[in-house]
Amino acid sequence: AFFTQLCAFFVLCDFKNTKNAIYIQKSTPNNTQKQAYLSTFTNSNTRPTGRPLHTTRPTTILPSILSRNTHGSSLVKIGNTQVLTGITLLVGHPGPLTPTHGDVDLSINLSPLSSQDYNVAGRLLPIVTEGEMSRSRTTSPRGYVDVHALESLVQRILRTSSLLNPNELCIQVGLSAWRVQITCMVLNHDGNLEDACLLGAVSALLDLKLPAVKIDMKGGGNGVVQIVSPSYDHEEDDMTEETKDANRITKLTIQKGTIPISLTMGIYDNHKILVDMT
Known about the structure:
By secondary structure, the protein is of the alpha+beta class. It has helices at 2-10, 31-42, 147-160, 193-206, 241-247, and strands at 13-17, 22-26, 59-63, 72-78, 81-92, 103-109, 170-172, 176-188, 209-210, 213-216, 224-227, 250-251, 265-268, 272-275. It contains five helices and 14 strands. Strands 3, 4, 5, 6, 7 and 8 form a six-stranded mixed beta sheet that branches.
C-alpha cells in the first residue's frame, strides 16, 4: 500500500505533444499529502527506509587512505554519505601574541560528484521551471547545505575542543610554525554532512604526522625552514644520522577526553526526534 501511494505521488506524468518538443508535466505531491505519507511511518517510530528514528546509519572510518601528497587522511562513510579528508602542511609565521602557536584551517568542497544539485563551484544549481525564469534554489532533496556555515562550525569545534596543542606546531619560536590545512571532499551527499565532515577532520588529525625539518642558516637572517624528505633506500643500520633524522616523524599528542564527536538530530512535527537525518 505504501509503494502504491509513493508511485501515485512521484510517478504519474501528463504528456503534452507540441510541434518541436515533448514536455513532461510531473504531478508532485502537496504538503498535506507529504505530511500524511510521512506520518504513516513516524507514528510507528520508523522511517520510509525502515530505520528507526533513534538509530544511526552504519559508520566506517578508514585512516591513511591517501598515501601520497598528504600528511594525514581518512575516508568516512555514514551510510551512503562519504567524505574524503586530506591534510597538507605549510610553514607560516606565528602571530605576535602567540609566538609558539601553529594554526589549523579547514575547507569543505562540494561538487557534481557529491550531488547533482551542485555545480563545479560547490553552489546549488538554480531551479528552472517551464514558463518561468530561473530562480535560486533554497532546498534540495538532501537539504540545503551552507558550505561556509559548515566550515565555520567544524573549525570552531576543532579549535575549542583542545584536540590539538597548538604549541606542538611550533618550529621556531616567534619565527615559524606549521599551518595545518584540512580539506574535506564530499564524495557523496546523502545527508548529515555535519557529523561526516567533523568525523573526517578528527580522524585525519589523529593520522597526522609532522615531517622532520632543518633550518638553513645560509645567507644570514632567520633561516629558511626546509622539509627533509625521508629516504627508504638504506637499511636502518647503514643510515647516517642525517638520514635517520629525515625519517623521523612526529605524531601529535592527543589529550584523553578531548576528541569531539557529534550526533546531529532534528525534530519532526514538533515532537518526533530524528537521529542522523537524511
